[in-house]
Amino acid sequence: MSESLLQRVAAGDTAAVAACVDAFGGLVWSLARRLIGHAEEAEDAVQEVFIELWKNAARFDPEVAAESTFVAMIARRRLIDRRRRLARRPERGAVSVDDAVLAAPDVLGQVDLKDEAAHAAAALEQLKPEQRRVLQLAVCQGWPHQVIADRLGIPLGTVKTHVRRGLIKVREELAAARKEAVS
Amino acid sequence: MTRPTASTAEHLLQLLADRVTEGLDSAAEGEVQALCAALPEFHEAYFEPAAAAVDLALADGDVDPLPAALRARVLADAERWFAGAAAEPAAGRVRLHRRQPRELRGGPRWSARAGWYLAAAAGALALVGWWQALMIPAEPPAEAPRTYAAFVAETPDAVHASWAGLEPGYAQVRGEAVWSDARQAGYLRLVGLPPNDAARAQYQLWIVDPDRDVHPVDGGVFDVAATGEVVVPIHAKLAVDHPTTFAITLEQPGGVVVSGGPLLVAGNVAGQAAGAG
């Protein structure tokens, strides 16, 4: 089995660095745009995320997670931390609730999803539409829970419950998939 | 000790869900760490893989290409970072070509004296979780000083703090920290600090800036060789405007976000009276 990009980066393969940026740059940039909003801040954040990625490349274990999941974890952690540091809510720009929901892809139709993302998609399909919508706005768009409650016209407690239960469902799906892969 | 209840677990799950969506303030982070310590089946990163997977699943196909100029900056950062890591593994750092984050002031404004600041900083250093091994602070956009001597010579407005050992085995430590608010850069110079095994633990600098927060700012990690002497640039995680105290702890490799270790060495900025009250 060939080494992953991050394993090559950790091993000192400088050619893998550019390949890694090309492979995951779009992912990190898109995450930053969605979670940070402001373009200049997002650019700064992308640079931070990649430095974080280089530091942590040696910690990547392909037996535990897909490379894209690992990158997304590192990026989300750094971006959420940065957003709090800036005490700035993500700019939602022209995206309305309806736009965001409409933009949410048909997860069943994403046949090229791999690994954790595919299992997450399967778990999301089992959620009620409102739960899925809340989770999408909270996780992918980075909307504060109160904003989601206000926009969707549902109680804040319901939003929080949807987020919590949705994540539990996805986590269970991932755990089951991992268990199946091991056995 | 009271046995955690199901509702405690549910409360922790909600905090963990909030953590990967909205983020938590420092008080809530502390609560999460305390609850995770009481409920070992949970950990701070409990929902992180799930949130990442949801993000990938729902945003798949909605990926914009990395702008060419930004790609070039990322690659330039990488080149410097890896060059630094190769030359000095403990200090594999890079000055990012970006703007200084515009910190929004918040939280209480400290009004007590430096000794009290130090006590407050020690109180703020709390529990550490395994997940924090991944949570290595990003390097700030500090203007990279060329050398300690040059920095001191070229930065007349820099503040100085002389080190004093606080724990047994550190009484011999001498040296100073110098810091410039304007340049958002500084240096540590230490003599007599016991060498560390970088594979097991690294020294970590903390900067107390009561104008910005009650919690100390992470100043980066460093190693000390057998000579016991070290001169390293300060890499503050956040903007620091009026530091009053610098302190050093010994932490897991890579450092931590919140420390539980004792303050080994500390120095009050000259002009800040030591001692509480």
Short description:
Chain A has helices at about 5-10, 15-35, 40-55, 65-85, 95-105, 115-125, 130-140, 145-150, 155-180. Chain A has about 180 residues and is mainly α. Chain B contains six helices and nine strands, in the order H-H-H-H-H-H-E-E-E-E-E-E-E-E-E.
Give your account of this protein's structure:
The complex is a heterodimer of chains A (183) and B (277). Chain A is an all-alpha fold. Chain A has 2 domains: 91 residues, Rna Polymerase Sigma Factor, Chain: A (Orthogonal Bundle); 91 residues, Arc Repressor Mutant, subunit A, CATH 1.10.10. Chain A has 9 helices and no strands. The longest helix of chain A has 27 residues. Chain B contains 6 helices and 9 strands. In chain B, the strands form 2 sheets. Chain B has a 5-stranded antiparallel sheet with strand order 2-9-8-5-6, with helices on one face. Chain B has a 4-stranded antiparallel sheet with strand order 1-3-4-7, covered by helices on one side. In chain B, helix 1 crosses helix 2. The interface between A and B is large, with 79 and 64 residues.
**Class from helix and strand fractions of chain B:** alpha+beta
CATH topology annotation of the largest domain in chain B: Immunoglobulin-like
Distance between the termini of chain A: 20 Å
If classified by CATH, what would the architecture of the largest domain in chain A be? Orthogonal Bundle
CATH class of the largest domain in chain B: Mainly Beta
Q: Name the beta content range of chain B.
A: 15-25%
Largest protein-protein interface? A-B, 79 and 64 residues
Describe the secondary-structure layout.
The complex is a heterodimer of chains A (183) and B (277).
Chain A: H1 5-10, H2 14-35, H3 39-56, H4 67-85, H5 97-103, H6 115-125, H7 129-140, H8 145-152, H9 156-182
Helix pairs in contact in A: 2-3, 2-4, 3-4, 6-9, 7-9, 8-9
Chain B: H1 6-19, H2 26-38, H3 48-59, H4 68-87, H5 114-124, H6 148-154, E1 159-162, E2 164-165, E3 174-180, E4 185-191, E5 202-208, E6 217-222, E7 229-233, E8 245-251, E9 265-268
Antiparallel strand pairs in B: 1-3, 2-9, 3-4, 4-7, 5-6, 5-8, 8-9
Helix pairs in contact in B: 1-2
